[in-house]
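Dear H.,

Thanks for agreeing to be a second pair of eyes. The structure we're designing against is below in token form, covering all 430 positions.
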């Protein structure tokens, strides 16, 4: 390698986070062992890394999309292993989770190639070659609009072009705050999406109930660039309870379709959110901890209630419903909930509206593709405000498969039920 100049390339070097990139190394000696390394500094100033061990072919080339990694943070033929297998570098703080807060800035990756098969010491050694790549949640032309209207707080993302576009109300879970990156990515795929803030991590509003979410839905419908009768709802975790409640009971907000990720029909939003969290606190004794003191919360809603008043009457739902779950979800009893939802809808005669995806060995945090798998991370329990390390579950490779496959299916589901084809903006290219 001292006699040659290795060439490292990433194509495309700028793209959306759910777009695959090709990483190739050329001009190596044949059968040359190298390590490909990806480094990212988060907005919290923590460093994350992934790496794979490769050997060049007879022509002195390594192609990550085609060649096998013999070790590292991933192994085998993994096109996007340098992204989905990222983990905090050794010595990092415990409980980290990689989440984008500034969607108007890219996720910057430093991809390098090193001599030999390394497992540590990357920052102390000079790489043979390095390339910087950018991954974006927000495509060119997407408009980001802060929402403080009619008592509702959120962020609206509008695709490029005149519209009108199909709309999506996007809700995260009990962690609270305003989480924008999934909505930005939805807008990059042609959906006018509003990320909704409905829980403050430090102080749960005492009076927030279904009316708040109905108003948020109406704000989307009323936007001049939205097709008012083609608005869907996407919720993760506690956001699924909100989505199911609106679909089943609201006479104002009637979604065209609903997507629930890692959620349940327990705790319908038919009373103030703070009251619901207070009820959860009464069941706190059901929460467990593993040998590393990580909190396991899935038993909080087990066994699934038989009293219809204690869960959303999903038999009332009249729109297509997609449920996405991992069977190793340690945070919420999602697979048991999905089974009960299917039984209730079967009895009510509306099970034909239900599609359920259950991914083996996937955990709770099923996010857009190539998001690094986090088995446990810091979390504030809403009913007690206790700071804990929450166990989410899942295994890295299986969870990565679930995220990539489910995202494609979610986008296709939304397109099928929300879009009149000419209104959907083409995916923007960076």
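And this is the sequence the design step returned. I haven't edited it by hand at all.
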């Amino acid at each position: 390698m001292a006699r040659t100049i290795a060439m490292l390339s990433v194509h495309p070097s700028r793209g959306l986070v759910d777009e695959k990139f090709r990483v190739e190394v050329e001009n190596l000696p044949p059968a040359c062992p190298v390590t490909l390394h990806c480094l990212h500094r988060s907005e919290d100033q923590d460093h994350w890394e992934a790496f794979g061990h490769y050997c060049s072919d007879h022509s002195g080339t390594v192609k990550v999309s085609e060649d096998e990694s013999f070790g590292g943070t991933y192994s085998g033929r993994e096109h996007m292993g340098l992204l989905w297998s990222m983990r905090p570098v050794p010595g990092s703080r415990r409980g980290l989770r990689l989440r984008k807060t500034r969607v108007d800035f890219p996720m910057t990756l430093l991809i390098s190639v090193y001599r030999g098969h390394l497992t540590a010491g990357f920052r102390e050694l000079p790489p043979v070659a390095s390339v910087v790549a950018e991954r974006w949640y927000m495509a060119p032309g997407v408009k980001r609009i802060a929402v403080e209207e009619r008592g509702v707080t959120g962020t609206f993302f509008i695709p490029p072009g005149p519209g009108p576009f199909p709309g999506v109300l996007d809700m995260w879970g009990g962690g609270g705050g305003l989480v924008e990156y999934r909505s930005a990515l939805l807008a990059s795929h042609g959906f006018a999406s509003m990320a909704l803030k409905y829980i403050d991590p430090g102080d749960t509003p005492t009076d927030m109930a279904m009316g708040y979410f109905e108003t948020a839905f109406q704000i989307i419908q009323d936007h001049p660039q939205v097709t008012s009768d083609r608005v869907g709802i996407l919720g993760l975790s506690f956001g699924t309870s909100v989505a199911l409640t609106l679909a089943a009971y609201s006479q104002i907000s009637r979604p065209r379709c609903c997507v629930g990720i890692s959620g349940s029909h327990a705790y319908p939003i038919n009373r103030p959110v703070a009251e619901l969290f207070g009820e959860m606190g009464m069941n706190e004794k059901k929460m467990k901890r593993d040998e590393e003191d990580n909190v396991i919360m899935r038993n909080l809603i087990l066994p699934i209630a038989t009293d219809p008043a204690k869960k959303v009457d999903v038999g009332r739902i009249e729109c297509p419903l997609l449920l996405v779950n991992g069977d190793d979800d340690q945070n919420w009893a999602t697979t048991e909930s999905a089974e009960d939802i299917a039984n209730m809808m079967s009895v009510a005669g509306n099970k034909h509206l239900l599609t359920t995806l259950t991914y083996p060995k996937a955990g709770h945090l099923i996010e857009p593709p190539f998001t690094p798998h986090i088995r446990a991370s810091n979390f504030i329990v809403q009913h007690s405000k206790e700071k804990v390390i929450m166990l989410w579950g899942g295994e890295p490779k299986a969870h990565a498969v679930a995220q990539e496959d489910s995202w494609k299916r979610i986008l296709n589901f939304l397109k099928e039920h929300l879009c009149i084809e000419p209104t959907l903006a083409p995916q923007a290219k960076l």
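Two observations from my side: Confidence is low (pLDDT under 50) at residues 422-426. The longest strand covers residues 226-236.

Warmly,
E.
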